[in-house]
């Protein structure tokens, strides 16, 4: 598998590249946001590890612009900021997960592996290849979503969350369960991660996100999909 590492700290580039290569990954690195964005567009990667504080183009802008260009590769953001607002911003712009510096390399590897396991291009879920509800169509084989025949850009984890909810239609899932089932580890991010992804799915797929028809909140319990 091929990973794009966009990071400007040379020491961290060397450390992460050595570890990822030792685990069998091919690593391409960029030390500024402009170059990283161009590489993300020009080549196909299985995962992008993206720092927030970068020269020439910050990580938020890189993430946003890649998503706007239709790149749905899973993105793991690295940030030195611990404030919730910074983490939420990254998720809103299309990141699939975040990790606050400083971090242990073993935790980064766990998150990398979890994102790769759940990448849409690798899924072998129980869903039918094509699902329709309302004006939304989902091609699980191609990992494509359209609404009114126009493409809807979802991040990798938005797609996986939607797929999981559809595959388990009618079942109520707690936030912790969704974190474990979709993100793949035991609630290492905050439960706010789930809420943000649910909110953005509603914004993209529901006629009235404030009164959703398909992605329901079950107060005190969690979320469920009904079509």
Verbal overview:
- There is one protein chain.
- The chain is α/β, with parallel strands linked by helices.
- It has two domains: 116 residues, Response regulator (Rossmann fold, 3-Layer(aba) Sandwich); 102 residues, Arc Repressor Mutant, subunit A.
- Helices cover 40% and strands 21% of the residues.
- The strands form three sheets. It has a five-stranded parallel sheet, sandwiched between helices. Strands 6-7-8-9 form a four-stranded antiparallel sheet, with no helix packed on it. The chain has a two-stranded antiparallel sheet with strand order 10-11.
- A hairpin with a 4-residue loop joins strand 7 and strand 8.
- It starts with a strand and ends with a strand.
- 37% of the residues are buried.
- About 4% of the residues have low confidence.
Short descriptors:
alpha/beta, four-stranded antiparallel sheet, Arc Repressor Mutant, subunit A, five-stranded parallel sheet, 40% helix, Rossmann fold, 8 helices, single chain, 11 strands
């Amino acid at each position: 598998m091929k990973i794009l590492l966009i990071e400007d700290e040379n020491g961290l580039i060397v450390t992460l590249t050595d570890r990822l290569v030792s685990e069998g990954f091919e690593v391409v690195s960029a030390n500024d946001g402009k170059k990283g964005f161009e590489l993300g567009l020009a080549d196909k990667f299985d995962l992008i590890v993206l720092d927030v504080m970068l020269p020439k183009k910050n990580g938020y802008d890189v993430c946003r612009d890649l998503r706007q260009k239709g790149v749905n590769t899973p993105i793991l953001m690295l940030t030195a900021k611990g404030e919730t607002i910074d983490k939420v911003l990254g998720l809103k712009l299309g990141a699939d997960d975040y990790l606050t510096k400083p971090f242990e390399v073993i935790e980064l590897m766990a998150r990398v592996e979890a994102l790769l396991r759940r990448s849409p291009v690798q899924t072998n879920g129980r869903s039918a290849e094509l699902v329709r509800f309302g004006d939304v169509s989902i091609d699980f084989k191609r990992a494509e979503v359209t609404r009114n025949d126009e493409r809807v850009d979802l991040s990798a984890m938005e797609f996986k969350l939607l797929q999981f909810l559809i595959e388990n239609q009618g079942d109520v899932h707690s936030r912790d369960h969704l974190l474990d089932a979709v993100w793949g580890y035991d609630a290492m991010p905050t439960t706010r991660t789930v809420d943000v992804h649910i909110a953005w799915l509603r914004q993209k797929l529901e006629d009235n996100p404030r009164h959703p028809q398909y992605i329901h909140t079950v107060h005190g319990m969690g979320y469920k999909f009904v079509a």
